[in-house]
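Let us work through a complete example step by step.
Step 1: write down the sequence.
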Amino acid sequence: METQATISERERFLRYMSFQPVDRIPLMEMGFWDETLERWHHEGLPKWVVHDRHLEAYLDLDLSFNRNWLPINALIYPPFEPKILEETETDQILSDENGVVYRQRKHHRTIPQYIRFPVENEADYERILPRLNGADPGRYAVDFDEDLHWRRERGEIVGVNFHSFFGFLRDLMGLEHGCIAFYDQPHLVRRIIADRIQFAKDLLARILATGALDLVQVWEDMAYKTAPLISPGFVRQFMLPAYEELVTLLRQDGVQLIMVDCDGRVDSLLPIWLEAGIDGTHPCEIAAGSDPVALRRQFPGCRLMGGLDKRAIASGRDGVDAVLRHVQPLLQEGAYIPFLDHFVTPDVPYATYLYVVERRRELVNNPYARI
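Step 2: predict the structure and record it as tokens.
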């Protein structure tokens, strides 16, 4: 590690993710489930720690870029009015602000049962188009300029989370219908992707004009445990030109880092993203075979984050040490930030997580430390 005067979290992050020398590697987490903090309150975490920001301050972690996005609405706007459509003693059928209808348990948190998404065909898409105007000034918070000023003063990473070409299609049509549309409604898929590019140009014009945008996360979530949800051939055919156009837009206004957020197995998708000029991916979900060490060997120069197997972490100190030893070569190479391969789950004991933090702290200060 280079010895130098203290630099900001932003400078450290951007330099390190560009394979440049830094004083230390960023020490951050992607995020925490609310239930995790609730468990930890019974295991010694102070009761006032009720948010990721509190926990980062308490444990002296760097701010997670993933929990500190600029307040820019890149989804449906104006939102639909949320409604309760039906209700029983145990369940509710709800319609949310994005026009999605789903069934949800009333008394404990579960994965919703989705019933209908706002777009099933081209007529539905026409009806929703007035809510997809990227130039609507209401998409930016009223105090956006002041907020941006103070983020820059504090030396924070300035980032935007952009639901991209598969990700936004999934938002509009749902996973099943969205995938089938590539076969049954290819014209609609192409139209949504083309419109999404224009939306990005309109939406991001204001922030790009400032020259302050450091990071864009391209949210896709287009893979499961063993493979992508659609073929790499379809990704190349339908999305590669759009990725390239998006990257050109961002680079010409100084965006230094463009990362795809995609759970699941990404090894067959990553070469397409890299070809488009995207820098890399996270969170490198181990259960799906997205091992960051293997990905770096296959794609040298790829920027990576995540990849600490949450299952091994939950098993205790031996599991923690094994995981950190596995990724240590990447820490020595650079442009890899070690955090859990998604949000920290409530099966991780608080004492174990404290051990994770301290062992990582040793490594981010000295990647050659013995683990």
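Step 3: interpret the result. Residues 307 and 341 are 5 Å apart (CA to CA).
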